[in-house]
């Protein structure tokens, strides 16, 4: 019973194949057709993802994140957001992996129970990789006008950054 998770996927696949055979569906042809459609979706979102990854790498190698952090630090101090979390705030809407690596460095340097560590934890749990999600989901269905979605999503991210600092301060300090 402890390893039931090892059997869930094979049993699920057998149920699907059995149901397809019961309904007299060519299961293999349907599988191949789905794989072709998946590959077409991959090809349609590839340019958006390439541009996104390129932008993240340019920010990292050009020290752009450090420059943006220095420019935004007075605003962060005014809003009582820890300056150490600003690089994570900058990368979070663009790259989940980049923001996760910054989060890990914050936790290792400041500790998970510090004010900065708790704020960073709340930020990681309450934000989304906005541009990645837009690129994948909108790109897969061919939507090109993303202006309103991007603005609303960035406002939600910004709100979560501010409220993370506020709630951690109210609940723990």
Q: State which percent range the strand residues make up.
A: under 5%
- Sheet with the most strands, sense and barrel status: none
- Going by helix content, strand content and strand pairing, the class is mainly alpha
Envelope shape: elongated
Order of helices and strands: HHHHHHHH
Distance between the termini: 44 Å
**Number of DSSP-assigned strands:** 0
Mean pLDDT: 88
Helical content, roughly?
over 70%
Q: How many helical elements? A: 8
Q: Over the alpha carbons, how many angstroms does the gyration radius reach?
A: 22 Å
Low-confidence stretches: none
Number of domains: 1
Give an overview in words.
- The chain is mainly α and 173 residues long.
- It has one domain (5-172).
- Helices cover 81% and strands 0% of the residues.
- The protein is built from 8 helices and no strands.
- It has helices at residues 5-22, 27-61, 64-79, 86-91, 96-110, 115-126, 130-141, 147-172.
- Helix 6 runs antiparallel to helix 8.
- The relative contact order is 0.10.
- The model has no long low-confidence stretch (mean pLDDT 88).
SSE topology sketch:
Layout: H1 5-22, H2 27-61, H3 64-79, H4 86-91, H5 96-110, H6 115-126, H7 130-141, H8 147-172
Summarize the structure.
This protein is mainly α and 173 residues long.
Which keywords apply here?
mainly alpha, single chain, 173 residues
């Amino acid at each position: 019973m402890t390893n039931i998770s090892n059997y869930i996927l094979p049993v699920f696949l057998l149920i699907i194949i059995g149901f397809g055979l019961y309904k007299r569906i060519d299961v293999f042809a349907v599988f191949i057709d789905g794989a072709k459609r998946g590959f077409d979706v991959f090809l349609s979102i590839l340019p958006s993802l390439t541009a996104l990854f390129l932008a993240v790498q340019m920010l990292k190698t050009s020290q752009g994140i450090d420059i943006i952090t220095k420019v935004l630090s007075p605003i962060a101090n005014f809003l009582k957001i820890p300056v150490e979390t600003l690089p994570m705030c900058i990368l979070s809407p663009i790259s989940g992996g980049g923001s996760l690596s910054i989060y890990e460095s914050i936790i290792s340097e400041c500790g998970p129970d510090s004010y900065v560590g708790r704020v960073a934890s709340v930020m990681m749990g309450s934000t989304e990789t906005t541009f990645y999600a837009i690129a994948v989901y909108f790109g897969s269905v061919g939507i090109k006008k993303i202006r309103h979605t991007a603005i609303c999503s960035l406002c939600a991210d910004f709100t979560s950054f501010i409220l993370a600092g506020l709630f951690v301060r109210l609940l723990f300090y």
